[in-house]
């Protein structure tokens, strides 16, 4: 089973590309200052940097949740930097999955309905067999009728993972997806993200401040003061810690 929506014959390329992106927030804070970075199909990237370095802003601009002040953001082959609502929402729904620190499940809906909700919002016919397989993969077979409030935090985040993958998005963005979980539960979630990349060819971009979490990624992109401040490939947690120490000096 493959996640990507394009033809299998398409040449490998970045699913998301930012070119010279700046973002000046209301109030004049320059959160991104000329960021150029791409995220390749089937890759797992961690974005790290000191607090306030622009990680969340980068994620929001890359995901079409926010518009850059200048520069290009190409998502699934389309420049979304200049798009306005509701077109931006349509592109986002078609191509992007999200995992948040706070799970963001709908408490009044069952696990099953939560997983299918993004496809329904996008006007797609839900792929129920795939949703069922995903719930089994994250260890929640049989919990379809439960409400989020009846599950532990780790279980809720695993529902959110199944939801993020259910529409086979081109890319999944996570903003501190393990930030609210204890160590061992966080590791389970990271192991699932890793497997989604390795087994299904998912593309994942994850903001984290945890070097151990970044160690699960193929690549770490470091931000400092709204600029790309280097990269590590096949990082170890130790290498990531050392780089973070340098950046926060
Ligand atoms: P990080 O996620 O790395 O902590 P952010 O992208 O959240 O960094 O923030 C980068 C800078 O932009 C910070 O100085 C922050 O205060 C500012 N900022 C972020 N979002 C907004 C906003 N909506 N309005 C005004 N300033 C913002
Ligand atoms: Mg942030």
Question: What are the main properties of this structure?
Answer:
alpha/beta; globular; binds adenosine-5'-diphosphate; single chain; 35% helix; 25% strand; Rossmann fold; 8 helices; binds magnesium ion; four-stranded antiparallel beta sheet; six-stranded mixed beta sheet; 249 residues
Name the overall outline. globular
Poorly predicted regions are none
> What structural category arises from helix and sheet content?
alpha/beta
Strand % is 15-25%
Work out the count of structural domains.
Answer: 1
Task: Provide a compact summary of the structure.
Helix content is 35%, strand content 25%. It has 249 residues and is of the alpha/beta class.
Structure notes:
The chain is 35% helix and 25% strand. It has 249 residues and is of the alpha/beta class. The chain has one domain: P-loop containing nucleotide triphosphate hydrolases (Rossmann fold), CATH 3.40.50. The strands form two sheets. The chain has a six-stranded mixed sheet with strand order 6-7-8-3-9-10, sandwiched between helices. Strands 2-1-4-5 form a four-stranded antiparallel sheet, with helices on one face. Helix 4 (128-137) packs antiparallel against helix 5 (153-166) and helix 5 packs parallel to helix 6 (183-200). The radius of gyration is 17 Å and the shape is globular. Residues 25-27, 29, 31, 49, 51-57 line the site of adenosine-5'-diphosphate.
